[in-house]
Amino acid sequence: MDQATYQGIALDAQTALALLEWQLEMGADTPLLDDPVDRFDLPAQAAPAIPMAQPVPPVAAASDTDDLPARIAEAEALASAADTLDALAAAQEGFDGIELKKGARRFCFADGRAGARVLILGEAPGDEEDRQGRPFVGRAGQLLDRMFGAIGLARDAVDAERALYITNVLGWRPPGNRDPSPDEIAVSLPFVRRHIQLAQPDLVVLMGNVATQAAVGRRGILRLRGQWVQAFERPALPMTHPAYLLRNPAAKREAWADLLSLAARLEALSV
Length: 271
Ligand code: URA
Description:
alpha/beta; 8 strands; Uracil-DNA Glycosylase, subunit E; 11 helices; 271 residues; binds uracil
């Protein structure tokens, strides 16, 4: 039997699956049709008549709308009314003032142990997090687990002293893993502040540019990393994101120095 090919590549089942996974990785997560169409095999068709142009009302992107202050106020009211982490998760998941909710698969609130001394604040769910509804479970998450494991901390540690609690600035995945917009960050921040208040960590790790900008209003993680700041009413350490470390392994050396700084600060707080 002839084997199908795609741009010269033999399309056996495994290759086809790998291509599909690659497209998902690149953010193509919405199939346009249920069945594939071989467009080289379509009968010639008369060009469709072009209808008269109708005036189209402009569609405002969420970031163009002027209801942002109202959405932030609603997020603040919902967040401050939540007295427990479960109540906060339900309030944030139910909040409709963020468009990303419509395109995401699952809400991603937190993972690890509430009550841990260290809280890691990441950016936003990626593809795997969006499937599982848990932060940092993809490749970057596996590296994150190894990094913190090297200083004796783990999200599944039974002992609160050795545990991690992990969340993100955004609870919903941005399509194609694009950067969160300033509006998306602004409506998410009230939930993040309340989240950290309720989880009560001793220290916060600001993982990457988005978390650092959301917390202290400054970008430039390569300059800011390793310098302790005050954020969410406690000491916080900006670090380079594990996704960056996967692309730039040479930067792991500085990340290791930051982990040692975190371990030393924890130790100093214990005595
Ligand atoms: N990157 C993040 O910042 N958070 C996740 O949960 C996954 C990847």
